[in-house]
Amino acid sequence: MNASETLRSDRSTPLAGQLGGGGRLTPQERAEVGRAARELASRGVHGEWQPSPDRADPVDLLEEQGTSRVHELVPLRYGRMLVSPFTFYRGAAYLMAADLAGAPRTGLTAQLCGDAHLSNFGSFAAPDRRLVFSINDFDESLPGPFEWDVKRLVASFAVAGRDREFDDSERKAVNMAAASSYRVAMQDLARMRKLDVWYARLDVDELEALLKSQVKGKDLKRFRKNVAKAQSKDSMRAYSKLVEVVDGRPRLISDPPMIVRIQELMPDKEAHEVEDTLQDILHSYRRTLRGDHRHLLEGFRFSDAARKVVGVGSVGTRAWIVLLVGNDDQDPLFLQAKEAQASVLEPFLGKSAYASHGQRVVEGQRLMQSASDVMLGWVRANGIDGVDRDFFVRQLWDGKGSAIVEAMNPAAMSAYARVCGWTLARAHARSGDPVAIASYLGSGDRFDRALATFAEAYADQNERDYAALRRAVDDGRVAAATG
Known about the structure:
20 helices, 49% helix, alpha+beta
């Protein structure tokens, strides 16, 4: 069987089975698989975007997502999406997945983020407490064609560039920076030893050193300020912002609809019944942690819980914050339990190999990140409406930070695009085959130029979809709320 036949054969196997890094083939055979993928999807074809005549109504797709969400929060989701075409894009991962499904595919798979827009990259505290930069959102993670993540990323920079009113040439430079950084990084990763690829990570200190040569003093000062803010985001800071002491006991501050304590959502339940239920849920979650991390968690006791509105695209899915205390009330641990529904990629790439969507998210995160939260786990829980749902759990504030896109000039955004491109390539190289992907991409800039062109065309589509949602609100078809 030649490389082209091997590639076509691989496409018929379950996606999860393709995440093997090409270990059974020689490097030469893996490179040939990559070159043969150009027969399935030329590099130039990625620059094409034209909506199909039977393309689904974007508002219909958003409403379809809304049926499984908290009904009263769906208008808040629309309101956040309508702030700008950029915020709309953040909530429109399902729309883009539906569009990408009709495009030619390379057949080169990796674990996908599934929503690799630029705001889903940022800092967090690794287990050694150093701040690292990586992808930090995996709600939609699923194995699939590597190029889907790259297209989502580069298009997000085109949308952001328009939001910042960059001109055509400035946006093209940013788009090219993101795509070329991914390609060059994958070439480098293809030459590395497997263990070196696995352990590769970008510490924030290294990121600062990298940015010094690419951005001016004002932008570097803003970066340092943003890092300092992220470093201050821990459970003690969350305690000062989210907790009040009532009758000598710490409890979460209610701020409807953004934060609603569980006792307010279940007024007919006795306090001890609510607490017993949550203790059972925490016990089930503990079983998904490593033994040493489980031991750490067992040193904390439950104190309070509340429903919290998070993000843009996630608004309406159920998200909880849980306050635990250790030695005393000045020893808090905040956990976030976020509902994990089916990935937006599943209708087009097949169902997850995991029975629990919470586990799907966690396993995707562990596979794509070089270092993950020690409290990362999952649980299936019976909701206040009696419905079983999947959740993934992590620390609420643990050095998490994101770039301030609205303050970026073209040079700063180009630098950030290069960092995100490298980060996405490293994440893909852990699960996919960097040799095959690098061979497919080649050493020239044909792929880069195609992605830059696609990004602008898809930014046009994003603006049309944004306008469609605006019309739907103006016509009373759907309701939008601010908050």
